[in-house]
C-alpha cells in the first residue's frame, strides 16, 4: 500500500475542501447560519419537548418534536449530529425534525459531550444511553437511528455493538439505521489535526471502527441500513461509505447505498429541512418500509 503524507490525510478528511459552491473559509459560517435559522423556525413551529435529560453528562439531553397526528406506535427517529466529534449541537440541528414530523414520525435530536471533554468511547456510550432512553419512553414504537458525518459514525458504532451483542437489543432494539456522509474506519484520523482533540491511538481507533469490528465479529443479528453520500465529497468519505455498505451486504444486512447528486457534505444536511428533498423522501420511504413489518 502506498504510504500517504499527513497533508494527504488532512485534505482527504476535511470535507469543506471538496465543496464546489463556496470557498472553504465561507462554507462553514454559511452552514452554521442556515442551520441556526432553520432550527429556530422549527422550534417555533413544531410541538416540542426540549432539554430532556437522558444521562448525567452536561450535554446528555435531547429534544423531541412531534407530528400533530400520532399514536403509540408512531416510529421514532433518533438523530445524531455531526461536527467532527468536536463541534455542533442539538439546538442547531432541530431543523432535521421538519421532514420527519411532516411524515408522521417523532424526531429525537440528541446532544452529547464532545472532544476533548469526552473520549470516543464515552461518546459511543452516551449515544447508547440515548437509544435506551428513547426505547423506554416509546415502548410500542420502532426506533431508528440517523446521523451525519461524526453522527453517522456514532450511529454505526452503537448499532454494530448491538449486532454482535444481542443482549443489548433486549434493552433497546434498533429497527433501522440511516447513515449520511460517515467515516467507518477511524484509523486515518490518527494522521489528521482532528486527533489533537480526539486523542485516538491505534487501539481506540480500531475498537471504535464499525467496519473493523464486523470483520472481527460477524453480526449475529442485524437491521436494515440506508447509507448515503453526496456527489461533492472527499473521495475518502465516498470510499468508506461504499466499503461499509459492501461489508454490510456481505453479512446479509439489507442495505441500500445512495449517492445524492449536486450536493456537498454540508448542504446534503441543510436540504433535509425540505420534505421534498430527494434524501428526505428516501429516508421516509426507508422508515415506512421497515415500519410495515
TrEMBL record:
Record's keyword terms, sorted: Hydrolase
Keyword Repressor on entry: no
Listed InterPro entries: AB_hydrolase_3, AB_hydrolase_fold, GDXG_lipolytic_enzyme
PANTHER family for this protein: AB HYDROLASE SUPERFAMILY PROTEIN C4A8.06C, KYNURENINE FORMAMIDASE
Keyword Transferase tagged: no
Name of the protein this chain belongs to: Kynurenine formamidase
Superkingdom of origin organism: Eukaryota
MF terms in GO: arylformamidase activity
